[in-house]
Design a protein that fits this description.
The complex is a heterodimer.
Chain A (H helix, E strand, L loop, with lengths): L1 H34 L3 H6 L12 H9 L2 H32 L2 H14 L4 H15 L5 H24 L4 H9 L4 H12 L1 H17 L2 H6 L8 H11 L4 H35 L1
Helix pairs in contact in A: 1-13, 3-13, 4-5, 4-7, 4-10, 4-12, 5-7, 7-10, 8-9, 10-13
Chain B lengths: L1 H34 L17 H7 L2 H34 L4 H9 L6 H11 L6 H8 L16 H25 L4 H9 L4 H30 L2 H6 L11 H11 L3 H34 L1
Classes of the chains: A mainly alpha, B mainly alpha.
């Protein structure tokens, strides 16, 4: 009896996990395989797992002939700017909430969480009007501002949880030694929560790199498009070159997967800690 | 004097964040409500106040109600599926003694997929000529000719539902797994000694500890899926024949396709009102459960 209850339940979870893992990982595997097959093979042998004539031609084609390398550069500029601004504003904000306004702060974090409810497409209407009025349509500045609307609330929420873990005594010791508020924040508290800041920064970066709706609405010329919208506009223009699209997809998804796996535990920690309060 | 400078110094920390929230979130929402009462056009600067006209037109438009019903079916189906798969995966990962790290890593992959890559990779896998899955099903004899998953009106909704479950289940899994780790082992063991079966242990020991995280997850992800535009837009574009047109896609077409920004505002304001109502009910349920648990 006890042997059965011990051995039997293990077969089921393993079988379940194997099926799920295949389903979860297959699309990534398949786009990688497809990206290195020749166009002829893609058209004639849709089930082959091992590329019969391995080629990197699709990567060359999409990066240089179709100009994706420029769009990747745009994405990099836009996402890095968003990340730097988000961390600067959110780290000071989160620290201020935790240290100086803990009571109002709780209300404020609640307000921030409730802004999560605002549909991006709802914000898009006033953003469009504002950008036309301020001449920010089709500029990086306009797009980065729009990205701050979703990145900052989430970053503050994550970072408040991290700054709460900093022991007050360490900061008091620093203040006795004559460090001002900003000094204490910058050289005492922030280094302690650096892993959290890095995780938040990576998360912000991935989210802005992957954003699609605002980029679609606010950027209209190919030379300024981030990669997500550039790929979308490519798909509409001509007969779809699937090999090239798969190569582009691999270039976009691989860094995202690697970074995600690196910071996954912080993202989960944010939610389970935040919900306890 | 000194305290005033102190307060100013403290306020300086939170001021940038508050400015951003006011300028980029609060003001635009109010502005959107304002636009919903105007005939604002994407291509014209001038606009007029039209009262409730946008709302009466939208609410009597069958396309709006179709999109609304699609949104609800899409959200409920996706969240139920993601919750079920994510929950079972988390329980399975908790249970297995070996390789759980490897499985966890593999299972998280879909979560890292950008919408644009989800769109293209699944369109490629499901492509009715070159796609892996339709060709596999035909080769194995399950279908006589390749199924066009994203064009056939009778299967497209199920296909996009499965794609969204594939994408969203890892998030549930990771968060539920983190919550499961907070369940005290000694309580589990005590219950085991007392002869509680697996179902009883789950319901009376595990559930009370993870209930709040799971509830919050459901609310947050429901909001996210309901508001999401990219996934369906990039996989099906809302088609075929409007079968996968949700409210955000409908609002997008109205505002940026037909240039009727005022009308689009009315649609999105209705969307937000609906979400607010749902969320306030949901939060009340979570909190009332709290009080029951205390008694």
């Amino acid at each position: 009896m006890s042997r059965r209850t011990r051995a039997y339940p293990l077969v089921l979870p393993y079988a379940f996990l194997i099926v799920l893992a295949i389903g979860a990982a297959f699309p990534l595997l398949w786009i990688i395989i497809s990206s290195v097959k020749s166009s002829t093979e893609l058209a004639h042998d849709p089930l082959s797992f091992w590329p019969s004539d391995f080629t990197l031609e699709h990567y060359r084609h999409v990066l240089f002939d179709l100009g994706a390398i420029g769009n990747l550069g745009n994405s990099l500029v836009i996402s890095l700017s968003t990340t730097v601004l988000t961390i600067a504003v959110s780290a000071t904000g989160a620290y201020g909430i935790v240290r100086f306004f803990p009571r109002v702060g709780q209300r404020l974090t609640q307000l921030l969480i409730s802004t999560y409810m605002f549909p991006p497409i709802l914000l898009a209407v006033p953003y469009t009007a504002i950008m036309i009025a301020l001449g920010l349509a089709n500029t990086y500045v306009g797009l980065v501002l729009a990205y701050l609307s979703f990145s900052i609330p989430y970053a503050i929420w994550m970072l408040t949880a991290f700054y709460q873990t900093v022991p007050l005594e360490i900061e008091e010791a620093a203040q006795v030694d004559g460090a001002g508020k900003f000094r204490t924040f910058f050289s005492i508290a922030s280094p302690i929560v650096l892993p959290g800041i890095v995780a938040t920064a990576i998360y912000t970066f991935i989210n802005s790199f992957n954003e699609f709706l605002y980029a679609l609405l606010f950027i209209n010329t190919t030379d300024r498009m981030p990669i997500s919208v550039a790929l979308y506009s490519l798909s509409g223009s001509e007969v779809l070159d699937w090999g090239a699209m798969m190569a582009a997809c691999v270039i976009v998804v691989l860094p995202s997967v690697i970074f995600f796996l690196a910071i996954q535990k912080y993202i989960a920690a944010g939610l389970s800690e935040g919900s306890v309060k | 004097m000194g305290t005033r400078i102190q307060t100013l110094g403290k306020a300086a920390f939170v001021l940038p964040a508050m400015t951003v929230v006011l300028a980029l979130l609060i003001y635009p929402v109010l502005s959107s409500v304002f636009f919903s009462f105007t005939d604002r056009n994407l291509l014209k600067a001038a606009y007029e106040f039209v009262g409730f006209q946008n709302f009466t037109i939208v609410l009597s438009n069958p396309e709006f109600w179709n999109a609304f019903s699609t949104s609800i079916r899409w959200t409920v189906g996706s969240i139920l599926g993601q919750l079920l798969v994510g929950f079972l995966a988390a329980l399975a990962l908790e249970r297995v003694p070996r390789l759980s790290g490897l499985f966890r890593t593999l299972l998280i992959i879909p979560w890292a997929f950008p919408a644009i890559v989800i769109g293209f990779s699944w369109k490629w896998i499901l492509n009715d000529v070159y796609g892996f899955l339709p060709n596999l099903l035909t080769r194995l004899g399950f279908s006589e000719q390749n199924v066009s998953f994203l064009a056939d009106p009778s299967v497209v909704f199920w296909a996009v539902l499965v794609i969204n479950i594939w994408f969203g289940a890892p998030l549930f899994m990771v968060n539920i797994l983190a919550a499961l780790k907070t369940v005290p082992k000694d309580q589990q063991e005590a219950a085991l000694v007392d002869g509680a079966n697996i179902g009883q242990r789950f319901w009376f020991i595990t559930m009370p500890h993870i209930r709040k995280v799971v509830g919050l997850l459901i609310i947050l992800r429901t909001i996210w899926v309901f508001n999401n535009f990219e996934l369906l837009f990039l996989i099906t574009g809302g088609g075929p024949a409007g079968i996968t047109t949700t409210l955000p896609i409908f609002a997008y077409r109205t505002g940026w396709g037909l240039h009727q920004l005022g009308m689009a505002s009315a649609i999105t304001v209705l969307l937000l009102l609906f979400l607010l109502a749902i969320a306030s009910i949901a939060f009340r349920i979570i909190n009332s459960g709290d009080r029951k648990a205390l008694r």
